[in-house]
Amino acid sequence: METPNARTMVSLRGVDKHFGDLHVLRSIDLDVAPREVVVVVGPSGSGKSTLCRSINRLETIDGGEIRVDGELLPQEGADLARLRAEVGMVFQSFNLFAHRTVLDNVALAPVKVRKVKKAEAERQALELLDRVGIADKAGSHPAQLSGGQQQRAAIARALAMQPKVMLFDEPTSALDPEMVGEVLDVMTSLAREGMTMIVVTHEMGFARRAADRVVFMDHGQIVEQATPAEFFDSPRTERARSFLASVL
Ligand code: ADP
Ligand code: MG
């Protein structure tokens, strides 16, 4: 297997994953450059979430290798915890701690994992909440926030670990339509600021605006990769054409 060059932030080589008899990821090769925004699209069940979860080692893989910033993702141990902290993840459900304030939700992990002093972590958390537009909610509990605000808090929480890469798995799918825009706006600014991002989404407008590259998955395989303009205006495969017909 070829060693990826130093300019690759996330690199997958021949990644395979089964759930029982189901072959969910089939020899996936993917390189994401620093500052690149890759949007992953594809039908339900095509393996998009499993791909994200594998990069964060929430799933083990059966074959191939995954590197983050050149480092091989280990199966377990202290190196795994350290590497995992470099990969921020935002899910469809916000997973905030219900009994903590929004500020605590953002400040807790840096204190526990990165050993940042509490006061400093809280200062940084406030800055992040300001960046995602909800500094005024710092003292509230998650249930007092709208879905869009909760998801922005979840993004701030992921950013608090100073990740090298951010993974988003359908971050707006659980939101009321009127709140989708505010979350996509935060993601768009993050992209503009140069964050390396892998985003699974059905928001094709966001893909067109923010993606450097669109990756189309079907049945556990990467079927096409192209710039948004190429992918949306002239998809090369019948599978991509019928997928686009179903979502656009
Ligand atoms: P997507 O995110 O593209 O909808 P997933 O990665 O969630 O696809 O799922 C890919 C396939 O793997 C689906 O057929 C799904 O049912 C199956 N799958 C996902 N997670 C599990 C699991 N923990 N156990 C068994 N099958 C799973
Ligand atoms: Mg999914």
TrEMBL record:
List the CDD domains hit by this protein, alphabetically. ABC_HisP_GlnQ
Q: What is the name of this protein?
A: ABC-type polar-amino-acid transporter
State any GO CC term. Answer: plasma membrane
Family matches, as Pfam families: ABC_tran
Q: Which keywords does UniProt give here?
A: Amino-acid transport, ATP-binding, Cell membrane, Hydrolase, Membrane, Nucleotide-binding, Transport
What is the reaction catalyzed?
a polar amino acid(out) + ATP + H2O = a polar amino acid(in) + ADP + phosphate + H(+)
Which species is this UniProt entry from?
Leifsonia shinshuensis
| Topological type in the membrane | Peripheral membrane protein
Q: Where is the ABC transporter domain?
A: 10-244
Judging by the UniProt lineage, the source's domain of life is: Bacteria
Name one molecular function that GO assigns to this entry.
ATP binding
Entry keyword Cell division: no
Primary location: membrane
Top-level enzyme category: translocase
Q: What is its EC number?
A: 7.4.2.1
Q: Which InterPro entries does this chain map to?
A: AAA+_ATPase (IPR003593), ABC_ATPase_HisP-typ (IPR030679), ABC_transporter-like_ATP-bd (IPR003439), ABC_transporter-like_CS (IPR017871), MetN_ABC_transporter-like (IPR050086), P-loop_NTPase (IPR027417)
Instruction: Tell me yes or no: is rRNA-binding among this UniProt entry's keywords.
Output: no
Cell compartments where the protein resides: Cell membrane
